[in-house]
Amino acid sequence: MIYLDHNATTPLDERVLAAMLPFLQTYYGNPSSLYRHGRLVRSAIDTAREQVAALVGVSASQIIFTSGGTEANNLALATLNHSDKLAVSAIEHPSILETALYLQDQGHELTLLAVDSKCVITQDAINQVIECQPALVSMMLANNETGVIQPIAHYAEQLKAHNIKVHTDAVQAVGKIPVQFEALNVDFMTLSSHKIYGAKGCGALVVGRDMIINPLLRGGGQEQNRRSGTENVAAIVAFGKAAELAHTELTTRCEYLLTLRTLLEQQLATIPRLTIFAQHAIRLPNTVLFGIDEVDGEMLVMKLDKKSIAVSSGSACASGGSLPSHVLLAMRVDAMQAKTAVRISLGISNTAAELTEFVTQLKSLIL
Questions:
Q1: Would you say residue 232 has pLDDT above 70?
Q2: Do both 255 and 149 map to the same domain?
Q3: What angle do CA 28, 189, 96 make, to 5 degrees?
Q4: Exposed, middle or buried: residue 31 (CB in 10 Å: 0-12, 13-18, 19+)?
Q5: CA distances (Å), 107 to each of 103, 104, 129, 343, in order?
Q6: Pick from 231, 248, 265: which residue ends a domain?
Q7: 194 phi and psi angles, rounded to 5 deg
């Protein structure tokens, strides 16, 4: 199989698997236990916390491990008090958008930040939000469908000058481009293990030093009383190892992915009636969202699957319906054209030969 859907999930790195296996087989103690077996497991969690912290340039105490990016996003939005206003961008992941709509139903005033045709949040949207004075603004660092990178640091500086807290969902960006929490000037940041060749079922919320968290889960007081529940030790260890590898190999990975993306886009340019969405925006080095006029994206995904090529028609977390991408609609792409969308998201194990084969098979289906 040619796997070209790494924004949905990445394969588990063999080095990550080797790191986590002992905690599935031998070191099974509860990390809250005081005896030696428990202390050893606790030490492994502490090491993983330091590894994840190093990836984004924070102290280990600022990392709260969660069950994944969705929980971390929900935890960030749970920092709102009863009457607080909220603003989120119109292109957020469903775990932000759906939570924001729920909070709106609970009485929180909600504002959606508009984006332009390149999928970039506009300055006008920021200006309007400042006038509304929400308690929190959530803006993803890199979009999971288009790959477009937002000017988070620039906008966060403006928002925080008006005492507005800022959260960024950095799930797609971390491990593909340099991401430093302090440089982005945000208060909260969401991370996910399975987007950087770690295990599924583990994520993290990075929390600013003076920020208060309202726990979603209460109980035994794990994760500094911010996220109770016995820790998923093996997955946390895997996250730590994946973060360590992403940190040390970042430059090599980024350059390689950009080389592959450039090759792919050159080959796609030979296909008539094909549009690469947000092509001229600053994007992740691994992501290409394209559409071919009058070719249904979901149908094309299924046809490619029959040829053992895995791609996506958009966000995997929002799949299963026939509605056009909310991201493309927010970019004011016509609904019919939006339904042509197919996303290619490259990984470090992909090759130039695989991309050539993909384009060959794509042409055989549509030409």
A1: yes
A2: no
A3: 100
A4: buried
A5: 7, 5, 18, 36
A6: 248
A7: -80, 0
Give the alpha-carbon dihedral of 60, 24, 196, 264, to 10 degrees: 170
Half-sphere exposure of residue 210: CA atoms within 13 angstroms, side-chain side: 2
User: Which of 248, 283, 311 is the endpoint of a domain?
Assistant: 248
Q: Are 7 and 172 in contact (CB under 8 A)?
A: yes
> Residues 156-207: pLDDT tens digits?
999 999 999 999 999 999 999 999 999 999 999 999 999 999 999 999 999 9
pTM for this structure? Answer: 0.95
Look up residue 170 and give its two tokens.
Answer: 């950095």
Which residues are known to be catalytic? 317
**24-77 pLDDT, tens digit each:** 999 998 888 878 878 989 999 999 999 999 999 999 999 999 999 999 999 999
Query: In whole angstroms, what is the distance from residue 66 CA to residue 226 CA?
Result: 10
The 3-state DSSP class for residue 131 equals helix
C-alpha closest to that of 137 among 200, 202, 196, 184: 184
Q: Domain count of the chain?
A: 2
